[in-house]
C-alpha cells in the first residue's frame, strides 16, 4: 500500500497549501489589509511561527483519536483505515480549494472533522463516532466567533474612547507600555506555556510558566515606558522627514508644471483641509475664524494653532534642519492628522507582534489538521498495525508548514481581501486591526492549549466584526458575513459527503 502513502503525502501538502491560501489568509487579513505588513513579510512571519506552532502538535490527538470510538478498528483493517484517512485528506482538499476560489474564509478544522466523520460512518456506521466530542467541537465553532467579537469590541471601544481622542499621540504613548505588556505576555505565553516538546517547554509546570510569562510582559512594559521620550522623538523625526520630502516633491512638480491646483498646495494644513475650507469659505469670512483641523481622532484646532504646529512651515523656519525642528516639537503639538499617523505607526508595530501570535496559534491548532491523517497512514504503513495515537514525526509537520507558506504566497490574496477589506465598508485602521488580531488569536491559543480544535477562521472573523460594530454598526457588510456563515455551516457536511463518497468508491475499486 505504498501508493496510499504517496498519494496521501501529496494530498496532505496540497491541503496545507489550501489552508495557507484560506486559513492563514484569515490570520493575516487584517495585517495586510490595513497595510501593516506587505505580503512578503507576512509570508516570512507565517513560515517562522507556523512552523514553531506546528511543532507543538497540541490537537492532532483530538482529531485522530477523540472522534472515533475506541475499539471500532481492529487488527486486519489496516487497509480500510489507510484508504479512509486518505479520503479524509481528499474531501477537505477539494472543498478548501473551491472555497478559496470563491474567496470564502472557511475552516480546515471543520473540513477535516467532517472528512473523518464521513469516512468512519461510511465504513462503521454512526455508532463509531463519539458524538459528545463532535458536539463539544461544534459548540466551540459557535463560541469562537462570538467570543472573538465579545473580546475585540470592548478593547477597541476603550482604545477609541480613551486613546484616539484629544491629543492622540500623547495618549497613545501613555497607554503604549500597558498595551505592549499585554501583547508581549500573550506572544511569550504562546511560546512558553506548555510549549514545544522539542524544546522541553512542555515539562515546565504552569506554576512556573504563568508567573514567568506575566513577569516578562511587565518587564517589557516598564522598558517601553522608559523609552517613551526616544520613541516620541523618532516618531517626530519620521514625520518631519516625510513632510520635507513631500514638500520637495511638490516643489519639483510645480517647477516642471506637472502639478494641478490641489497638488500645488504646499503645507500639510492646506492639504488636509482644502475641501473643508472651500465648502465653508462664506462662514470663514463672516466669523473670521473656522474649524479646519477636525478629525475623528482628536479635538478641533484653529488656524493659529495649525500655523504653529504645521511641520512644513516650522521646518522652513529652521532651514529644514530635522534636529532643530524635532526640538521645537518636543514642546509643541503636531497637527491632529500627523498625531494620527504617529499613533498608527505604534499600532502597526503592535500588530506585528499580534501577527506572530496569530501565526503561532494557527500552527498549534490547525497545521496538524492537514498532516494528522497522513501521519496516521504513515504510522500504519511503517509499523504494520493500527496505532492511531502515534507521535507525529517532525518532518511530516514540516510538510504541513511548508505547504501553508506556498499556499499563502500563491493564492492567499483572495481571502485576505475578504477578511481584511470586504467585511467592513471602511478599510481597517491599525488600531482596529490590532484589537482584532490580539483578541481573536489569544482566544484560539488558549483553546488550542486546552486541546480543543477551535476555528481560527471563526474567531478572527468574529473579532473583525466586533470592531466593525463598535466603529459603525451599519458599516458591517452583513450580506457578505451571511455568505461567510453559510460557508462555515456547510463545510463539515460537504466534506463528510465528499470523504464518504470517495471512500465508498475506492473501497469498491481497490478491495
UniProtKB/TrEMBL annotation:
InterPro entries: Phos_transporter. Its main location: membrane. GO terms for cellular component: membrane. It comes from the Eukaryota. Residues 1-16 form the signal peptide. One of its GO terms (molecular function) is phosphate transmembrane transporter activity. It is a multi-pass membrane protein. The chain crosses the membrane at residues 39-59, 80-98, 138-159, 171-193, 213-231, 345-364, 394-416, 437-465, 485-510. Sodium-phosphate symporter. This is Phosphate transporter. It comes from Naegleria gruberi (Amoeba).
Amino acid at each position: 500500500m505504498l501508493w496510499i502513502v504517496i498519494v496521501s503525502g501529496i494530498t496532505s501538502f496540497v491541503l496545507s497549501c489550501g489552508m495557507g491560501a484560506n486559513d492563514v489568509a484569515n490570520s493575516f487579513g487584517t495585517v495586510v489589509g490595513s497595510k501593516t505588513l506587505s505580503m512578503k513579510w507576512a509570508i516570512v512571519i507565517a513560515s517562522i511561527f507556523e512552523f514553531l506552532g506546528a511543532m507543538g502538535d497540541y490537537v492532532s490527538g483530538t482529531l485522530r483519536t477523540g472522534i472515533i470510538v475506541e475499539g471500532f478498528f481492529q487488527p486486519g483493517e489496516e487497509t480500510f483505515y489507510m484508504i479512509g484517512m486518505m479520503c479524509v485528506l481528499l474531501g477537505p482538499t477539494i472543498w478548501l480549494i473551491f472555497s478559496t476560489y470563491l474567496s470564502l474564509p472557511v475552516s480546515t478544522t471543520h473540513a477535516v472533522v467532517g472528512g473523518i466523520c464521513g469516512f468512519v460512518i461510511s465504513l462503521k456506521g454512526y455508532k463509531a463516532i463519539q458524538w459528545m466530542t463532535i458536539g463539544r467541537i461544534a459548540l466551540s465553532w459557535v463560541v469562537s466567533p462570538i467570543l472573538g467579537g465579545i473580546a475585540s469590541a470592548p478593547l477597541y471601544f476603550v482604545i477609541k474612547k480613551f486613546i484616539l481622542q484629544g491629543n492622540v499621540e500623547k495618549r497613545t504613548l501613555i497607554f503604549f507600555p500597558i498595551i505592549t505588556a499585554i501583547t508581549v505576555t500573550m506572544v511569550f505565553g504562546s511560546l512558553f506555556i506548555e510549549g514545544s516538546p522539542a524544546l522541553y517547554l512542555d515539562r515546565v509546570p504552569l506554576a512556573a510558566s504563568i508567573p514567568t510569562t506575566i513577569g516578562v510582559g511587565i518587564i517589557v512594559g516598564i522598558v517601553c515606558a522608559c523609552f517613551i521620550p526616544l520613541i516620541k522623538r523618532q516618531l517626530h523625526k519620521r514625520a518631519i522627514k516625510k513632510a520635507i520630502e513631500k514638500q520637495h516633491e511638490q516643489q519639483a512638480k510645480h517647477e516642471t508644471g506637472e502639478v494641478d491646483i490641489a497638488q500645488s498646495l504646499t503645507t500639510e494644513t492646506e492639504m488636509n483641509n482644502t475641501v473643508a475650507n472651500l465648502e465653508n469659505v462664506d462662514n470663514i469670512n463672516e466669523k473670521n475664524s473656522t474649524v479646519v483641523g477636525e478629525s475623528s481622532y482628536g479635538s478641533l484646532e484653529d488656524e493659529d494653532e495649525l500655523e504653529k504646529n504645521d511641520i512644513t512651515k516650522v521646518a522652513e523656519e529652521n532651514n529644514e534642519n530635522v534636529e532643530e525642528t524635532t526640538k521645537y516639537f518636543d514642546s509643541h503639538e503636531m497637527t491632529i492628522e500627523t498625531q494620527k499617523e504617529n499613533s498608527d505607526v505604534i499600532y502597526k508595530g503592535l500588530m506585528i507582534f499580534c501577527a506572530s501570535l496569530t501565526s503561532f496559534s494557527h500552527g498549534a491548532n490547525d497545521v496538524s489538521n492537514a498532516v494528522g491523517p497522513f501521519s496516521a497512514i504513515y504510522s500504519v504503513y511503517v509499523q504494520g498495525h493500527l496505532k492511531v495515537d502515534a507521535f507525529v514525526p517532525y518532518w511530516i509537520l514540516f510538510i504541513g508548514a511548508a505547504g501553508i507558506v506556498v499556499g499563502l504566497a500563491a493564492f492567499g490574496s483572495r481571502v485576505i481581501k475578504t477578511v481584511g477589506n470586504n467585511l467592513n465598508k471602511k478599510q481597517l485602521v491599525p488600531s482596529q486591526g490590532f484589537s482584532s488580531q490580539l483578541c481573536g488569536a489569544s482566544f484560539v491559543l488558549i483553546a488550542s492549549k486546552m486541546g480543543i480544535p477551535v476555528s481560527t477562521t471563526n474567531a478572527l472573523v468574529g473579532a473583525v466584526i466586533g470592531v466593525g460594530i463598535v466603529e459603525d454598526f451599519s458599516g458591517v457588510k452583513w450580506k457578505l458575513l451571511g455568505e461567510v456563515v453559510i460557508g462555515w455551516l456547510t463545510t463539515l457536511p460537504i466534506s463528510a459527503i465528499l470523504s464518504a463518497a470517495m471512500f465508498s468508491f475506492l473501497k469498491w475499486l481497490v478491495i
